[in-house]
Amino acid sequence: MCPQYTPRAPRRPKVERICETCGGRFLAFASQVDHGYGRYCGRDCMAVAFRGLPQAVTCLQCGTSFPCKPSIARRDGTRFCSTECRSRFHSGPQHPHWQGGRSHTQGYVTLRQPDGRKVREHRRVMAEHLGRPLARTELVHHRDGNRANNAIENLEVMTRGGHTRHHHAGVSKRPPGQWAIRHVACVGCGTIERPHKALGLCGRCYERHQHPPKAPSVRASPPDR
């Protein structure tokens, strides 16, 4: 046997302990007890001892009681049992900044219905006036041009085609028989055979205008020796 070898001391038997959380009995190593460990029978009891038992918190939206971590409950971090309840609370009349479900989008007044869906106020006013839901092909026109003025006297039902013609009435169009609105022929080549592209040019001249040919590069001649 090597003279520097120290025989290992026999392992001491486990010590019976009582869990400080649940009061159950368990066995722990004597070395753990010497260093101040062996106080809990498992990780769950140790977590309860360090963090505390889950506390019952009441959801502000539906009133359901649900468990919450004590650390989160102490700082008032969890007030809803689900993300759905949180969304409904922040978009419902219980929110301190609730304005009746009215909002403005692109000048139109939008209303939030009880089921959470949004509807334009002018379409809802017209549907209630007619006593029937509006079709998808029916548009509600504001006569004075104010999108927020949803009085029934200011609203008028139109088809999509009629609404487009109303807003584009008086727009100058190409005279019959003329090559373009402002040009009688291509300003580049003078043709009327090819249709107008843009800038008073036909398709071929427009491509030349957008992509002009590159000038040939001139290589310098080597100096005379």
Explain the layout of strands and helices.
Blueprint: E1 15-18, E2 25-28, H1 30-34, H2 43-51, E3 55-58, E4 65-68, H3 70-74, H4 83-90, E5 102-105, E6 108-112, E7 118-120, H5 121-130, E8 138-142, E9 155-159, H6 160-167, E10 196-198, E11 201-202, H7 203-210
Antiparallel strand pairs: 1-2, 3-4, 5-6, 6-7, 8-9, 10-11
Keywords:
single chain; about 220 residues; alpha+beta; three-stranded antiparallel sheet; two-stranded antiparallel ribbon; 7 helices; 11 strands; flat
Description:
The chain has 225 residues and is of the alpha+beta class. 24% of the residues lie in helices and 19% in strands. It has helices at 30-34, 43-51, 70-74, 83-90, 121-130, 160-167, 203-210; strands at residues 15-18, 25-28, 55-58, 65-68, 102-105, 108-112, 118-120, 138-142, 155-159, 196-198, 201-202. The strands form five sheets. Strands 5-6-7 form a three-stranded antiparallel sheet.
Our count of helices gives 7
**Structural domains: how many:** 4
Termini Cα gap: 95 Å
From the helix content, strand content and strand pairing, which structural class follows?
Answer: alpha+beta
User: Which descriptor suits the 3D outline?
Assistant: flat
- Give a quick account of the main beta sheet: strands, pairing sense, barrel closure: 3 strands, antiparallel
What's the short version?
The model has no long low-confidence stretch (mean pLDDT 83). Helix content is 24%, strand content 19%. The protein has helices at 30-34, 43-51, 70-74, 83-90, 121-130, 160-167, 203-210; strands spanning 15-18, 25-28, 55-58, 65-68, 102-105, 108-112, 118-120, 138-142, 155-159, 196-198, 201-202.
